[in-house]
Model the fold of this input.
Amino acid sequence: MKRSPASDPRATTVDPAPALRIGARWIDATSAGTRPLVDPASGETVGALPAAGPAEIDAAAAAAAEGFEAWRRRLPVERHALITRATALLRDRAGAIAARLTREQGKPLAEAEREVRLSAEIIDFLAEEAKRLAARGVPPRTPGVASQTVMRVPVGPVAAFTPWNFPCNLPARKLGGALAAGCSVVLKPDERTPSAAVELVRCFVDAGLPDGVLNLIAGDPAAISSALVPDARIAKVSFTGSVAVGRQLGELAARHGKRYTAELGGHAPVIVCADADAEAIAAMSVVAKYRNAGQVCASPIRFLVHRSRYAAFRDAFVAGAEALRVGPGMDPATQMGPLVAAHRVHEMQDFVDDAIAHGGRVACGGRRLGRPGFFYPPTVLEGVPPAARVQREEPFGPIAVLDLFDELDDAIARANALPYGLAAYGFTNDLRAAHRLAEGLEAGMVGINHFGVSQPETPFGGVKASGIGHESGLEGLLGCTELKLVSVAA
Ligand code: NAD
Done:
């Protein structure tokens, strides 16, 4: 059954059932069945998502190809006007969208609403920046050549794959850059947390985006990527998720000559120097660590604290972690919600059990909470040898590992020892130490004396195994463009 829900541009509520969007149509039933939507705070099924089969995947690529032809011709100022109409709707609907986001993903409602509002900021910045994409004139070296102009043109239809940890923000980064640049999009949000992305798309539809410019499908992730990535109508692939899947899609993209951007997680180190205010940094660190229950790719994981400040830092960190109120995201008192899915709880337990088996100690948490839903407590591990899994693999959950160091160079070397390189943090009031940290830490984003490295205006991306390319900031926009040289002889 196909439908076109009556979309009221002024609505502050959201359509209760998520649907796919292909071309001019909302699709709420397909021959490929549905995927259940589960509330992680209760474990109960709260809805269903129609799954895209081969026909819908093909239709989405066709729609994006058509949409691109219409959208690329619009002037940047026209695109900006339409995009900012959509973000105004997104802000109006932020409360209702946040409630859906929390119901599917689990994070506290206030955190979800901040995510939706930040998504509007990200998209606005990119649309604004696109008005300033200047061409570059290069003086000719050949007599008779009047001009050589290097222009930025949209790369083409983008296939964008986003995970479940930021169900609004990550789609916003991808479609924000693409739409601002003049590209069309086929968005595949995570099947567990699709509603925020569906509602984000609805804001654009209600704002008057031409049909086919923004399409949304979901279903079997591997079936969708293995059809879309090689599809000749798709010009660029953008993925956020695990290193394993990111490499798989990168190989496929390379085989078919597609542009590729990937954001693949990290294992962020935090170095706290001897001169730093250990208690104050521990309090900041608890907030940063347990935000979104640690399901954040730039989440601090390995805390390396100077031996002279270790006890003070540890005591303050553990007290802060133990004081956090864990509960359903819809409860206003909750500071940390459940994990997104049952299997993530088991994975946390495996990380902790493995650390203990290697000789590590649990300073707090470390056992799943005995209540319905997918809850795991804020956990702090100490004395964990480098061979333990949690010291090498991204736990992607509410686990912090505390360690001490004597020499800054040794701490930096240990911070850099893993293949990841997304975010890294250092705390010091010593200017020379700050420069050593900034220069020495191998990461796409280094925060000195704070954790706020992800902003709409700044590029987000990693080095080493953590990814390729950037999103957000000017670089997020440039990643959706291609260079074109036009050389004119008089
Ligand atoms: P996963 O790799 O199964 O899923 C991650 C995302 O990739 C999901 O949205 C999924 O739908 C999608 N995906 C999986 N296979 C795909 C395919 N063949 N084609 C296209 N998309 C595909 O992992 P998970 O269980 O959700 O999380 C496990 C690990 O992934 C975490 O521990 C973390 O390291 C990493 N992760 C990273 C981020 C990030 O922001 N970088 C986000 C989510 C997960």
